[in-house]
Amino acid sequence: MGNVISNVSHSQYDLGGGARGGIDPSVGDWKLPAGNYVSTGMGMTIVHPRPEIETNTWARYRHEHTGVPYTIPVAVQGGAYPFHYELITFPSGMTIGEDLVASGDALTRPVDYGIINWASPTAGSHTVKVRVTDQLNSIKEVEWTLTVGTAGWIFVNPLAADDTGTGAIDDPFKTVGRIHSDSASSTEFAGYRVYLRGGTIPLDGMATNGGNFRLDPNTNPLVWLGYPSETVVVEEYEGWMVIGTGTDDVYLGGFTFQYAAAYSPGGGTAPIYMINSIGGYDRMQVHGLTFKEFKGSPFNAGAGNTAAMYFNSNPRNYISITGCEATGTVGIFVDCYQWNYSVIDGFNVHDAAIITTDGSAHTAFFIKDNPDFVTLRNIEMWDNNTWNSSIGGVGYMCQNGGTNTEVSYCTVLNPITSGRNGAVYLFNNNIDGGLVENLWLYRNSLNQRLVWEGSAMTNFADGEEIHTKNILQTQSIAVADAKVTDIDNIDSGTYLDASMKLTGASKVSYLGTHGAEVAG
């Protein structure tokens, strides 16, 4: 069955743990047997919500409009996955997706896993308290006050006659221009939260700002939501959303982001984005967005860093990107510098032409430059995608240091076998001599390369990189260096079917213990 890299004794790493015994997923027992999960030693951090450090009145999780379904994620970095979520204090009718659910022989993520839902919020103040428990019985809790009412909410409906209404749910504006003025002195809707109704809504009218839609806590709303159960398309054709320094507590969720067919910024010579973060800030949440027709090439050919969501070289804390997807002609999705206590969890790339000629971002999901406590989990890139020859799937680049970063439970099919391409790309050329340690690659299902680049070992200050319990179909996962440790990986053979799931004898031997599929 190909090469099975032998186990290496590393007592400081908990690759299973606890007296678990067998489970029956059908009765909702979420604890896994010993050996069916991995702990890196990083404790859990609840990235969202963060009420103990957030004081801004507009924060999305603290507010809902009366009668409009309330939906927010509880985002977790680190910990021993999978988690058990439960509501401890909550108003009547509120629910949370507590556990993975049985699907055949495996456990899969239901659409509401880790998501709080309240179908019909009633006016008033409500206490919400959530508890999260991991496989090691570690517990984190978070509590906040949810205010339900009509104050501070604005509605945009592209079917409205014009912008002369009040912006109320029954008297909406037609365009975002009424809310988001070119004028930096317009503060009428600062601190508001915006619901976008069904239809296509252009981001336009920002000529003074070069076409860019600038989010600013002093002048514009920072919370933009698609109305539940309606198909909302936000279309960029002049510029992109720009998030500047000090713009804390941005929340974007529940709509499709796409470029207009004629979109070509800079005549194809400038980097392009959908969301461009140009400064340091805290607590940005992106949930339930669909990215579509983000044309990575030819528009950004050789133009430098580009991505649907680009975070430049400024420190940012508590960033979460959860429950998103991408389809159509697309390029780089996330290219980020200096994330701390942040997570990407649940991003499905399907039916996509993954095209780019950007030499600065080497993978579709790229964590760069001094990450610390960052998790990439449950990224799927396998379903009817095509690739060009210049991009890998998931990776990190520790050129100026990097610590406590993990890539886990990802399923990546990248068919290209040359250059920097691969299911996972790793670059550890620590040119500034900063600390690089505690990097983890575990429980991933990959095809067909792991690409290593950079003079990593000369500059690997302390610690090591651990690869454990991955499945790498076709090629070898081994890296010939003393500071990259391979523990119990499965490689150099055929183990996965066309859907990147374990098949045949491999399923019998490895389901739940190796690769991205969770099972008891």
List the helices and strands and how they pair.
Layout: E1 3-4, E2 45-48, E3 63-65, E4 70-73, E5 75-77, E6 84-89, E7 94-96, E8 101-103, E9 106-108, E10 115-118, E11 124-133, E12 139-149, E13 153-156, E14 193-196, E15 199-203, E16 213-215, E17 223-226, E18 232-236, E19 241-243, E20 251-253, E21 256-259, E22 273-277, E23 281-282, E24 285-287, E25 290-292, E26 307-311, E27 316-317, E28 320-330, E29 334-337, E30 339-354, E31 363-368, E32 372-383, E33 386-387, E34 392-397, E35 402-408, E36 411-413, E37 424-427, E38 436-442, E39 445-448, E40 450-453, H1 456-459, E41 465-468, E42 471-474, E43 484-487, E44 490-491, H2 504-510
Parallel strand pairs: 3-12, 13-14, 14-17, 15-18, 16-19, 17-20, 18-21, 19-22, 20-24, 21-25, 22-26, 23-27, 24-28, 25-28, 26-29, 27-30, 28-30, 29-31, 30-32, 30-33, 31-34, 32-35, 32-36, 34-37, 35-38, 36-39, 37-40, 38-41, 39-42, 41-43, 42-44
Antiparallel strand pairs: 1-44, 2-5, 4-10, 6-11, 7-10, 8-9, 11-12
Overview of this structure, please?
This protein has 520 residues and is an all-beta fold. The protein folds into two domains: 36-148, Immunoglobulin-like (Sandwich), CATH 2.60.40.10; 149-510, Pectate Lyase C-like, CATH 2.160.20. 2% of the residues lie in helices and 41% in strands. It has a 24-stranded mixed beta sheet that branches. It has a nine-stranded parallel beta sheet with strand order 16-19-22-26-29-31-34-37-40, with no helix packed on it. It has a four-stranded mixed beta sheet with strand order 3-12-11-6, with no helix packed on it. A hairpin with a 2-residue loop joins β8 (101-103) and β9 (106-108). The longest helix has 7 residues, at 504-510. The radius of gyration is 23 Å and the shape is globular. The two termini are 23 Å apart.
